[in-house]
């Protein structure tokens, strides 16, 4: 799976998409790291000036990347993150589980279980230093239940070796897409943006 800045993902076609799913899912994580490394190597940024953000499956992405290269980022923000992949994908009563087998695989099979186990963010948390994190959940989320974020944060706090803060914020009246009211949605965005700016030393 090629990395670079020649074309946005939407222009790379079906082959590019297929090269980052199922047995090849790890390509999406290593590509992300490669792009971040290139930005640093070419002088566009530095690890203490680079914050990454992902929501839902994007939360899975940045969670997996955090396990691979926690030293590369000044902070990581996750919104309604799909981080406990093995547990969720083994529960067919959840709304999207069986529909998502084509993307992640069915861990009811030994081969898929082993593949997912290699990169699932929750299952690969380890005793090492992680950057500061903001993990946001929504109480009424039917796609990524709030307990995924809570479970992830609890384990991360227990195993990490640094003193960096890990903030869990649960919105009590929102779902997977965030707050429905216009101003409530803006407040959510403002909170996350303020946290990111603070990590970059730009908050006032």
The H/E string reads: HHEHEHHHEHEH
Output the radius of gyration: 17 Å
CATH topology heading: Rossmann fold
CATH class type: Alpha Beta
Mean pLDDT across residues: 88
Fourth-tier CATH superfamily name: Alpha/Beta hydrolase fold, catalytic domain
Strand order of the largest sheet: 1-2-3-4
How many structural domains are formed by the residues?
A: 1
Low-confidence spans: 1-6
Termini separation comes to 41 Å
How much of the polypeptide forms β-strand, as a percent range? 5-15%
Helix content: 40-55%
List its salient traits.
single chain, 204 residues, alpha/beta, Rossmann fold, 4-stranded parallel β-sheet, 4 strands, 11% strand, globular, disordered N terminus
């Amino acid at each position: 799976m090629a990395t670079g800045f020649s074309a946005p993902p939407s222009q790379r076609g079906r082959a590019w998409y297929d090269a980052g799913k199922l047995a090849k899912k790890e390509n999406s994580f290593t590509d992300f790291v490669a792009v971040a490394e290139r930005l640093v190597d070419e002088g566009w940024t530095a690890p203490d000036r680079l914050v990454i953000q992902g929501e839902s499956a994007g939360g899975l992405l940045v969670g997996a990347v955090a396990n691979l290269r926690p030293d590369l980022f000044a902070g990581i923000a996750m919104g309604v993150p799909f981080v406990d992949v093995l547990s969720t994908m083994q529960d067919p009563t959840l709304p999207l589980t069986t529909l998502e087998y084509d993307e992640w695989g069915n861990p009811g099979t030994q081969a898929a279980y082993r593949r997912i186990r290699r990169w699932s963010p929750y299952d690969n948390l380890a005793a090492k230093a992680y950057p500061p994190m903001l993990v946001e959940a929504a109480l009424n989320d039917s796609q990524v239940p709030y307990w995924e974020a809570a479970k992830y944060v609890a384990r991360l706090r227990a195993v990490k070796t640094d003193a960096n803060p890990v903030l869990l914020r649960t919105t009590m009246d929102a779902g997977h897409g965030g707050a429905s009211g216009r101003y409530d949605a803006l407040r959510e965005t403002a909170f996350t943006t303020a946290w990111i700016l603070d990590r970059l030393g730009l908050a006032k």
